[in-house]
């Protein structure tokens, strides 16, 4: 059996050596398995690539793929999935925050046969700036409400998967990628393993607040169409509000006030027209939004279904 480890690296010159030492230790413990280390250099500007080339010189398990510029961790992971050939594949950060030592336990669970993947989540966010934890938690709470896909708070991208699951991920060829959503969307049986947060071995986080914020928007837009429904909600609200001045106007008319002389009646009618028109405009936007949501769904080009098991040898995948 072969295990592919995908390691996205962006300016990781300081962490690579300790990380590689750890990989050597873990792979020596798992001597029954063949290994492939797929390092994706995501446009690093430090010595990352030359260090990777050094590793590759003396170790044929090491493969590196260097990007022409920084495309982001999602692109790096996708390149890894597209090029991994293992029976089992794991994504792993280069900074040891995804402890390679967990691999042994993860493998054991997969070998028992019941699960297709073992995913990891952090129990705590200790060591992380408070403000970042706050926004992260809020993001997961909102996501839990507005998305049909299960996105688990504290989940890492670190997970070990069987081949079928990797093939399914490769088939998700959308450009705006959000892996935690993709892992949830494709399904399969996942075992969740918790561990205490580990701090980065060296260097510093590559995610600025702005990068994380944009990433969270990718997650929301990619896996929920609730924001598009805002227009529908606003249209309804507008119509409901418009009923109030309409009622007041009718009462005033019944009481015999004339439009020509009654300021209040003129106001009621004006307000009614404004809110009713707003409602109509918003409703039209909502209809357009609905179609855009459908178009968006189509252009993502996601597979229609993912087969987990079959006894058919010539199964059609679409
Ligand atoms: N990374 C990457 N491209 C980027 C940003 C990060 O390949 O644009 C890699 C980085 O080298 C590391 C992993 O993604 O291996 C996770 O990044 P980091 O540790 O900085 O994120 P954090 O753990 O702070 O969320
Ligand atoms: Mg990290």
Largest sheet: 7 strands, mixed
Category from helices, strands and their pairing: alpha/beta
Unreliable parts: none
- Percentage of residues in strands: 5-15%
Short key terms for the protein model shown above:
alpha/beta, 7-stranded mixed sheet, 50% helix, 14% strand, binds uridine-5'-diphosphate, binds magnesium ion
Report what the structure shows.
α1 (13-29) runs parallel beside α2 (48-58) and α5 runs parallel beside α8 (209-223). The protein has a seven-stranded mixed beta sheet with strand order 3-2-1-4-6-5-7, with helices on both faces. It has ten helices and seven strands. With 318 residues, it is of the alpha/beta class. 26% of the residues are buried. Helices cover 50% and strands 14% of the residues. The chain binds uridine-5'-diphosphate and magnesium ion. The site of uridine-5'-diphosphate has 16 residues, from β1 and α3.
């Amino acid at each position: 059996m072969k295990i592919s480890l995908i390691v996205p690296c962006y300016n990781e010159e300081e962490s690579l050596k300790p990380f590689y030492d750890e990989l050597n230790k873990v792979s020596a413990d798992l001597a029954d398995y063949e290994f492939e280390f797929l390092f994706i250099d995501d446009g690093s500007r430090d010595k990352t690539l030359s260090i990777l080339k050094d590793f590759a010189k003396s170790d044929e398990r090491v493969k590196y793929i260097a990007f022409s510029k920084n495309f982001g961790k999602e692109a790096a992971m996708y390149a890894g999935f597209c090029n991994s050939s293992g029976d089992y594949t794991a994504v792993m950060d280069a900074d040891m925050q995804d402890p390679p030592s967990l691999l042994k336990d993860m493998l054991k669970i997969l070998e028992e046969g019941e699960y297709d993947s073992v995913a990891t989540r952090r129990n705590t966010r200790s060591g992380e700036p408070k403000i970042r934890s706050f926004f992260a938690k809020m993001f997961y709470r909102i996501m839990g409400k507005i998305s049909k896909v299960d996105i688990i708070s504290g989940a890492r991208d670190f997970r070990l998967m069987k081949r079928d699951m990797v093939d399914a991920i490769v088939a998700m060829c959308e450009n705006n990628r959000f892996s935690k959503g993709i892992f949830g969307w494709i399904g399969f049986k996942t075992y969740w393993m918790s561990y205490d947060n580990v701090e980065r071995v060296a260097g510093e986080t590559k995610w600025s607040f702005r990068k994380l914020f944009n990433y969270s928007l990718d997650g929301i837009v990619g896996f929920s169409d609730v924001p598009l429904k805002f227009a529908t909600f606003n249209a309804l609200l507008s119509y409901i509000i418009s009923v109030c001045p309409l009622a007041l106007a009718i009462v005033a008319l019944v009481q015999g006030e004339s439009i020509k002389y009654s300021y209040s009646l003129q106001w009621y009618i004006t307000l009614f027209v404004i809110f009713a028109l707003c409602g109509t405009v918003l409703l039209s936007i909502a209809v357009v939004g609905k179609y855009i949501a459908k178009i968006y769904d189509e252009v993502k080009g996601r597979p229609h279904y993912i087969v987990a098991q079959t006894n058919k040898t010539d199964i059609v995948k679409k």
